[in-house]
Design a protein that fits this description.
Layout: H1 2-5, H2 10-23, E1 28-32, H3 35-43, H4 46-49, E2 54-58, H5 63-66, H6 69-79, E3 84-88, H7 102-107, E4 111-114, H8 118-127, E5 132-139, H9 144-156, E6 162-169, H10 171-180, E7 188-192, H11 193-199, H12 205-211, E8 215-218, H13 222-238, E9 243-245, H14 257-266, E10 267-274, E11 278-287, H15 296-300, H16 315-319, H17 351-357, H18 364-373
Parallel strand pairs: 1-2, 1-7, 3-4, 3-5, 5-6, 7-8, 8-9
Antiparallel strand pairs: 6-11, 10-11
Helix pairs in contact: 2-13, 8-9, 9-14
């Protein structure tokens, strides 16, 4: 528990917050890219410890949330086919498509299974040669190595009944798209530590220099985040725009080169659609020519998909950092974790789920009434 308690010390957190107050002389807007960081910020009230002018903007760092609706609809169509075992991590099962979710497909008789690793799906393919086994490979650079390993292993084992439905997205192009967007207000970034643990942070200095924005590689515990915010504010106040590594206990400049070599062997960079944002050039991975036979989109050729977003859902605006979840009129009313309109209310890394779970839509007056009545 050492690395948990060390980075959750309340007294040190207060001192760090006081330093941020002392350093900040102007309003600043800082985006945390990662959904895990968003949840930690909201759960621990870190944003409420900051000076009034230092605002945290929640970025598109939830991989489940940015998976395009059309791809989710394709997953539903594949999972509903006879003879298919459709495998996924649990957080994808309640993400709504145009016509339901994977739980509903399972309820109608589809063989939908939660697995804890794509390698579990490879084992299922080996044990069920008469079935087509599909794994829904969703994620940023963090989860990509395991998915690359799964198709590499399936090919080495000669499995013809395993395939991967790929929705992998890359962080640096998304940051550049945010910085290029009309009306962008982000002035600094907290970079996701787990992504950088795989990829390193060598890709970011050109972006920091080109757009004159500080970037800080940051972890997920309260002190990690406060330190990242402090470093960003110091740079902003000094007019600097550098990439700093505030997560050196995990992240190195070059990252995990073995993982990167595997990724280069299996995937190739491609344009990728992001839910709520649109197509970002060269922002994702797909299986390359050597592994294209394991591509579920190619294998199943699902046609006639016409995705329809809920007109009430503003998850796209949330993912772009244009609004806070509580500013959506449907938030906490038509849209709740039990009846979600969008992925940001379902995923364990979604900003809407964080705001709902930690009561950020409840006013101080309402909270006081609840306390008195109880």
């Amino acid at each position: 528990m050492k690395y948990l308690t060390e980075f959750r010390n309340g007294e040190i957190a207060q001192r760090m917050a006081q330093e941020i107050h002392a350093r900040a002389t102007r309003p600043w807007k800082i985006m945390e890219v990662c959904g895990g960081q968003t949840h930690s910020i909201i759960r621990n009230g870190i944003d409420q410890m900051l000076p009034a002018g230092v605002q945290m903007i929640h970025g598109p760092g939830c991989p489940v949330c940015v998976t395009p609706l059309k791809l989710i609809d394709q997953a539903l169509a594949i999972a509903a086919q006879p003879g298919v075992i459709f495998c996924s991590f649990g957080d994808m099962l309640r993400v709504p498509g145009s016509q339901g979710d994977l739980f509903q497909v399972k309820g109608r008789g589809g063989d939908v299974r939660v697995v804890y690793s794509p390698l579990d799906a490879v084992d299922l393919a080996a044990k069920n040669p008469e079935k087509q086994v599909v794994f829904f490979g969703v994620g940023f650079e963090t989860t990509a190595p395991a998915n690359a390993m799964s198709v590499n292993l399936a090919r080495r084992r000669g499995l013809k009944n395993f395939s991967l439905l790929v929705s992998h997205v890359l962080v640096p192009p998304a940051i550049e798209a945010i910085l290029q967007a009309p009306g962008n207000q982000v002035q600094a970034f907290l970079l996701a530590g787990h992504v950088c643990s795989v990829m390193g942070y060598w890709q970011y200095p050109p972006l920091a220099e080109k757009y004159a924005v500080p970037m800080v590689v940051t972890g997920f515990e309260p002190l990690d985040l406060l330190d990242g915010i402090r470093r960003a504010v110091v740079q902003l106040e000094a007019g600097r725009h550098e990439v700093e590594n505030a997560y050196s206990r995990v992240v190195t400049h070059h990252g995990n080169r073995a993982a990167q070599q595997l990724l280069a062997q299996v995937f190739e960079v491609t344009d990728r659609a992001w839910r709520g944002i649109g197509v970002i050039p060269q922002s994702g991975w797909r299986l390359n020519a050597a592994y294209r036979d394991f591509d579920a989109e190619q294998r199943f050729q699902i046609a006639g998909i016409h995705a329809h977003e809920s007109p009430l859902c503003r998850s796209g605006d949330v993912l772009r950092g244009a609004i806070r979840p509580s500013e959506c009129a449907a938030f906490g009313k038509q849209c709740t974790p039990r009846h979600p309109l969008g992925a940001t209310m379902v995923s364990g890394e979604g900003a809407c789920a964080a705001y709902y779970n930690y009561g950020r839509f409840i006013s101080a007056e309402e909270l006081a009434k609840t306390s008195v009545s109880s």
